[in-house]
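call fold(seq) -> tokens
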Amino acid sequence: MNFIECHEEPIHIPGSIQSFGYLIGIDGESRTITFFSRNISDIFNIESSDELFGRKITDFPESFQSIIDSEIYTSLDRFTRRKNETYFDKIFINGKEYHFSVFKSESHIFLEFEEVLINPNKRISNKYDNFYIIDNEKELWNHLLETLAKVVNYDRMMVYKFMMDGSGKVIAEKKNEDMESFLGLHYPESDIPKQARDLYLKKRKRIFSNVYADTVPIVSKSHEEIDLTFSASRGMSPVHGQYLKNSGAASSFSVSIIMDDHLWGLVTCQNIEPKHIDLEDRVQAGIFTALAANAYSSFKSKSELNYRLELNERVSQLKTGFLKNNNLFDSLIESKTELRNLPEADGMAIISYDNMVTSGSTPEPESISNIVKWALENTQENIYVSRSFLKDHGEELDLSKNAAGIAIYFIEREKNEMLIWFRKEFDEHINWAGNPEKKVEVFSQNGEEKKMISPRTSFRIFTENIKGYSKRWNSRSVSAVQAVRDLILETSHKNYNAIKRLNDELKKVNEELDSFSYTISHDLGTPLTVMKLNAQMLLGNLGADAEKSKNKINTIIEEIDSMAEMMHDVLQLSRAKYSEVQLESLKTGSTIQKISENAKMTYGSPESEIIIKECPDVLADKTMLHQVFLNIINNAVKYSSHKESPKVEIEGTEDGQTIIYRISDNGIGIPEEEKDKMFKIFNRMDNAKKFKGNGVGLSIVHRIMTRIGGNVTYESNKEGTSFILTFKKPYI
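ret:
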């Protein structure tokens, strides 16, 4: 005996139809009869049904003349051009009027018949126009039920909306006064399992006239199971039949509510007594339901458009603030309240590296850090949303009720930059239409006994308390998070463009400065040389008694030399910033020795003691390295040259992956108030005014050390100064 779960039940191939219908199946190519319902002999004059197989309808004019003469059959090719599309006609069979339907499914053409019923109670007005002027969801669905009641009046009529998990909820109801209300009740997914929902999407009107009536078997010589998905009289599954009996219904009728090709819900009707609805009335009910669905979709679209416009306005206001700041983190903090409210969150955290700023009701910082770590390790998507985060991860992440639901937008994972929105636990109670207990029972299907899960027998209200969930993050909440994402991307892009534009302008200015530096050092060098030569000639032509004039001319020559030196240093500063760097392992001993000897001669201090200790190799550019040691050693010798026993000490040491050189002197020292200006161009200390110089050398050193990936600092007091040069250690 086979065991079948509800969701596995093959409801599209029941092997039978309901007793109100009559079915003949013919081959789509040969047009020969391949199957039929056993009851066709009740309305057609057939002596022996076995003789039908392999023959055509036209072979039996005495039995099927009304079919043969019908417009549908004479134009069968046209009406079966597209699969699964049903066409209707009316024909008389033995003096009674029948609906005649035809459709093609797979390789078969289905000819389906049911008797025409006159509905004396049907009352149709033009009120279906009102669907498009109703702007309230509850009123719209109630209006649909009122309209349908004039066509297919059942004891209980409901609009049933599917939830995301497949369960459903009754959102509108029209019933007899003496019946218990089901409005607001939830139904589990197993009541209408997936394969049933799939059929409701394909066949949008479904009637079970009498759940207690026997079904009519399909007769076929083939072992092929006939797919009755699109048959109006398709037999009921035994599980669903038992479900209706348990609920007290003898008849049911449903119409699918389709939104954007998605099964949004059902109009589902139940009657205590057996009841059949004429095909035309069922079609009309489908039309009214489609009108209501379109009106609802239109109403929701208008509402969504208004929300989008409001959201865009709020985001535009945020954008103005974002563009004022150059730092994204500052912009987010400044607008944290508005950002928290956009997706209607209770709290929010702004994360950047190890920085955390919160707004509203949030978990403790330690819990937020746990969430950040979890998110980086367990999510891949750019936006992550969960309403059951507390239920799923509360224990492992030590979460409070403030983090029942979270939404995360990852700004940049590598920098741990993200926004986290929080929602509190929602004290939710769901009223189910009965406790969905499951029992295994034996059902007979196609003559074969099968064990199946029996539908529940109780429909008394069963209340479930939901823990660990927040309110649902709906499409608007997600849209708000996406709007924040777009805002950040857009403003970041604009800031990037602004910075790029400024960099381009700065590059042009620097190129002009380079040209200016070259002009100063080269083009202005010639007139200075001419001025110096003329001054020297004037000095040579003066007699011995012109001492005063000689002093003035010597002053002019000194100023010319000073200007020439300044122009040379400005050019060196420019080169230090823009010249190409070629880092290599360099020995420093001989360079330091040569610079030290020259310095004593340059500054007329032969008595200066220069102690050179260990000189380890460094990673640097050869030309730039020479400039660094030249400026630092020259300064050390120069500013200690007026001491009674001038002394300079140079030593290099290894420290991990760096080489540190300390160049110390016992010179004039650097005043504390001057320390912030030491590496600025043209800066000269008050106590250095009596020494020759222009305040460019240390700027050159600072730029070079930055370019080669090193650093320069200093220590100073009244006993002297030590400059500390940090280089990268050469690769082994």
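The radius of gyration is 46 Å.
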